[in-house]
Specification:
Two copies of one chain form a homodimer. By secondary structure, chain A is an alpha+beta fold. Chain A is built from three helices and four strands.
Chain lengths: 94, 94
């Protein structure tokens, strides 16, 4: 099992717009093969921090995800709403 | 439901020691009331990045966790093995 944490620092006035597009990503991604869970989370102290926490069956499913229509279309939009580059980590469980 | 991501940047020569103590934290914490899941994860590209990904029923359980014997004893040890301060985020699901 692969866990992904993708943290975005969103422009203050773009938070609502980010959430709207991010929810479309969630909706499309949870239907993908190999996706165990994929959710959107907001920091309780800083609403500009919006993070996808994801569980994938294996690296192959994650790689396939990156080539989907919804990722190639929506990720550039999400990035344009960020105030600075985010943090992306791919993890294995110990 | 509350999700916590606690990311540590561990000193290169202290990674094994960190994992040893972190596993004791996992073992004790999963038994706590209100803990849905609590796992230790390692970045697949950078083994010095070690992260706890946690799910708690509510803020109350998380607050109680911070006062447990294993947290007050083991967290200072884990921090002493870090090369720089880590990132701690507490999230709500959207």
């Amino acid at each position: 099992m692969i866990k992904v944490v993708s943290k975005h620092y969103v422009k203050e006035d773009k938070v609502d717009e980010f959430i709207e597009y991010a929810k479309r990503m969630v909706e499309a991604t949870v239907k993908e093969e190999g996706c165990i869970s994929y959710g959107l989370f907001q920091d309780v102290k800083d609403q500009k921090i919006l993070t996808f926490i994801e569980e994938w069956e294996d690296m192959e499913s994650l790689e396939k995800h990156k080539t989907t229509e919804h990722v190639t279309r929506i990720v550039p939009i999400l990035r344009s709403l960020d105030e600075k580059p985010g943090d992306l980590n791919i993890y294995k469980q110990l």
